[in-house]
Amino acid sequence: MNASTARRLPEEALEKARKFCADEYFDYNVYKYLASRERDPKLREILETLAREEYEHYLFWKRILGGDCKTSSPGWKLKLILLARKVFGLTFTLKLLELHEDEVVAEYKAYMKYLEGSDREELEKIIADEEKHEDELISGINEAIVRYLSFIALGIADAIVEITGVHAGFLGATRVTEVAGIAGLIVGVSAAFAMAGAAYLQAKAEAVVASERSPGKSALVTGVSYLGSVVILALPYFLTRSMATAFTASLLMAIAIVSSFTFYNAVLNESDFKRELAENLSILFGTAIIAFLFGEVVGSVFHVSTII
Q: Taking the complete model, does pTM exceed 0.90, yes or no?
């Protein structure tokens, strides 16, 4: 399709082609930018392959458009993406960038009605790339953070549910914030070692079926994840003397941690974030309510509030 042919396309089709062209050119720049700063040769090769594919897609839409669509990629966006890669890992970053792919594929399929011949065939190939090949490339990234994600989740989830339950129980049993904070730390530190030991045994058992996860590292990430969550949740109890304020702040931190990790996990596993978040928060609030009611009963029966 040459420029004269492109001019015969409806204005609506030209606008869509311009948008697709600019999007593909931006994605090409993102992958090229990440590849230029990637130290791991294998990961750099994957990024360079993705960049080449996006550049080919850009050239296709440029030809359909009958002109160029290059736009300067804002430097702050690229730096933000690089920061995400360093903090959250390459797999998460690429899958986050690919979240809109289902929508893109649907738009490309709808655009097929404007094309014919070799142009139509080439767009079909691009759609196949978007649907399958890019996912295969991304799944080939074998990052440690992904391998140990289940153990990180185990540490964070257990800590939040158990320690929030402890704090909620003390909310109904005493007005002394330090007592609740110390209780959370004592329970948390003990449980962190217990969870680390359980993770070690689990990973060791999985090693029998050729698991790529080290028992030692599995224990370490579980224990550190658990302990880190415990410290964050206990901190408000040492900064205020109001039990209600401390519990509210701790609960808000728990919600923030659960929401953040659920989103991270949903992006990696391509699952329903809203459904998983609702499920996780239901467990958190359910545990807090039950613990609070139990604390109220214990406090009234044993008159704990008059002792501490």
A: no
